[in-house]
Amino acid sequence: MRNVKLGITGPMSESNFGDFAMFINNVYELGVNEIVAFSYNKGFSQKIINDYLNSYKIKNVEVILKESLDGPEKTNKDINKKVGYLPFNAPTLTPIDILHQIDNYSELESNIKEIDVLVVNGGGYFNHLWNNSLWRQDMLKKIIAPILVANQLNKPIYFTGNSYGPFDQSEEFFNYIFNYIKNVRFGVRDKMYSNVYLSRIGIDSQKQVFIPDDLFIINNDLLNLPRKEFKDLSNIGKYIAVEIYYPLDELKDIIEDLKRFSDEIYSKYGYSIIFLPFDFNNGGMNQGEFLKNNLEHFYLYDISKTGYLPIEDVAHIIKQAELVFCTRYHALVLAVGQGTPVINMMKKVCNDHRYYFNKNYGILQYVFEGIQFNEMDFIKRDLVETLEYLEENILNVINSQKQVFNNKRYSENLTTLRNKRLNYLDNILNRK
Q1: For 230-414, which CATH superfamily applies?
Q2: Per the CB 3.0–4.6 Å rule, which of 16, 202, 317, 404 could disulfide with 279?
């Protein structure tokens, strides 16, 4: 263990797999024993700390905000106004607005005085979607609060693998926040548009460092933990791993297509389905329960037993799958990181595909750098059309993608990307 005391902030306080799993993986990779975790949901954060990090010395500090000066009634009234398809934009907050809104400022300040460096965990939360959502904006401010206090105390601040943008009507907000921070390095997990968005608001390119996603390479100690569920996959036989969180009404509308797909891939190829809900309720679990009641040869990973989707389990299930069929970015990340063929259904955010295109094509671009590939083979848009295509062509899809993964350059890229990440983490510990 390194003799450095870290603070970590980021979206690790909820049961969404991609968010909390990046936090756990970063702690394992950094190899630092003493950590202050700044959370916005202390209960869930403490659960994953107890389950994964009980051998570490971790203090869990919840960021508490005072009620907005405008009050919830006025905020709700304003947020319900519409401009096109987007909610009305609340006034742009500055760093001083957020600092004054921290209810436990003294607690944050005293803890940040004790750390050597603050890490801003990876994710896709620095964008208009988060800032312009009433409940996400509250979480975003709680993530940002320790950054602002650390900046006041001149602590080094390192962002790990984040996406930035689209900023849209929130550009001025991020302009004021990011340009307030001085002793900082922005880890960027794509070579696409994040740099463009940061440059638009005046962030020096020398402060921007490309690194792969925080979950692209999972720590071996995590992978080797005893699995909690689906310990023996041999009784299932061949399967595809499915993660989708389309609205339940949309799935109900196409249930006959989904039934046909499930029946066809089993009768023709012997493929069952293991469904991986990345979160509770409409984040995946509701969809999984609905499909379990309607499809044959279907196995649901019930996260109500564990409280979340365990990292070691999902990594193993994806690695052993014939194909991953997913909507979420981190299902795609785990698949391409382990060489498993994958079809990613790109969802719209704020009525367009920019958010997911930057992330999803972004990872394909750097994983397959130097290899001829067609992104349309990996990223699809129409769900029913894709199901119909896979019913007849799934073996061709799998074999075609395996040729890409078997390319010597792919394994070389994995080594290069791992070294980039490890070098960046080492720079954090040495404050370079």
Answers
A1: Glycogen Phosphorylase B; (3.40.50.2000)
A2: 16
